[in-house]
From TrEMBL:
Signal peptide start-end: none
Organism placement in taxonomy: Eukaryota, Viridiplantae, Streptophyta, Embryophyta, Tracheophyta
Organism expressing this protein natively: Nicotiana attenuata (Coyote tobacco)
Tf2-1-like SH3-like domain residues: 1-63
Protein known as: Tf2-1-like SH3-like domain-containing protein
Coiled coil spans: none
Pfam families cross-referenced by the UniProt entry: SH3_Tf2-1
InterPro entries listed in its UniProt record: Chromo-like_dom_sf, SH3_Tf2-1
Amino acid sequence: MIFVKLQPYRQMSMKGHSYHKLNPKFFGPFRIMKKVGHVAYQLDPLHNAKIYHTIHVSQLKKHVGTTVAVPHLPVTLSTCGYIVLEPEAILEERVISKHGRLVTQALVKWFNCSTKDSNWIDLHVLQQQFSQFSP
């Protein structure tokens, strides 16, 4: 049994969360199905988590002991193991000055997240990244 390390600080949508150092770094435990090459392992697939099942050894940690008190994987993960957030609703809009230009921002509530995890995103960036989303 092993734990998988996620890197939410690399995910653009995870920036801005307070106390990111207190967030869990490892998720699991997972069962190893087989070794793939010299530096990767294939994990037991989960039906509800969208995670790429072949993971590099640097992203794994051995499970020690019999009890597990670790959070479960988020429902939606990218193929690289990064957390993927999808917008659910726009709570507010505001206009701010950025580099001498007026920019419209939206306070976005993310799907499967509480309202305290909502954050401000430039409206044009939101439309580019989530073109299928219509508030």
